[in-house]
Each structure stands twice: as C-alpha cells, then as structure tokens.
Write a structure and sequence with these properties.
alpha/beta, Rossmann fold, five-stranded parallel β-sheet, 5 helices
Length: 144
C-alpha cells in the first residue's frame, strides 16, 4: 500500500510556530514517525509539504495516476478557504483522511468550518502528531 501524506501551508514551521497549539515536534520529526509506523504495517509513505495551494492540488492530481492508494492531508489554513482543494479531493477515487494537530472545533469560529471534511473519508483532529499515526492506521484498515 502506498499512502501520500500532504501537509499544507505553514506546517513547515512546526516546532517553532505556536508550540502550545501545534506541539514542539518539527514536520520532519513527525514524517519520520509516520514512515516508521508505515514500515511496521507493511506500507510505504511519501510526504509532500507546500505553502502553495496549486502545488497541493497538482500533487493530488498526480496521486490519481502514480499508484497512490490513500491520502492523509493536513490542509492547514486551506481547510477553511479552498474550494479548489476540496474539488481536487472530491475527484479522487481513493480514501482521504483529513488530519489536524489541534482541535479545530475548540478554536476560533472560522476554523470550525471545513471545506474538506464533507469529501473526506474521515477526520482526525486534536490529537497532535498522534492524529497522523491514527489516521495512517485507519486508512490502511480501510484499504485492507
């Protein structure tokens, strides 16, 4: 199984940006843990981070053709603003799980609206980096 992990805008700042909300681990450290768990579960993971909406959309389009079996996506702030990202996810015929480090439902009201959730297979939020690991387990279970 091949799983794509997409990280949206500003997630490259993890470990530095608001650690009280997002934790102290860097994106690279989180990616290492995801890859390690994937290996234990017999899967492969590729990760991609961009601060640019179009690059995330292009990577989703590529996933339609490159043997990707499932996607974990933390769209960051695009969660609440991007119809285009929603449409790219909607076009996929593979499962997609939306992941958020913080509990977006306990934050500002504008963060409580997701354009992604209605087209995602599932949503994990508020569990920090463990949310990615749980989402990986969930997507692999769904694929099996």
């Amino acid at each position: 199984m091949n799983v794509l992990v997409l990280h949206g805008p500003n997630l490259n700042l993890l470990g530095h940006r608001e650690p009280d909300i997002y934790g102290s681990q860097t994106l690279e450290e989180i990616d290492v843990e995801i890859v390690q768990l994937a290996k234990q579960l017999g899967a492969q993971v590729s990760s991609f981070q961009s601060n640019h909406e179009g690059q995330l959309i292009d990577r989703l389009h590529q996933a339609m053709q490159d043997g990707t079996n499932g996607v974990l996506i933390n769209p960051g702030g695009l969660t609440h603003t991007s119809v285009a990202l929603r449409d790219a996810i909607s076009a996929l015929s593979i499962p997609v799980i939306e992941v958020h480090l913080s509990n977006v439902h306990a934050r500002e009201s504008f963060r409580q609206q997701s354009f992604i959730s209605p087209v995602a297979t599932g949503v994990v939020c508020g569990l920090g980096k463990d949310g990615y690991l749980l989402a990986l387990r969930a997507i692999l279970a769904k694929l099996n």
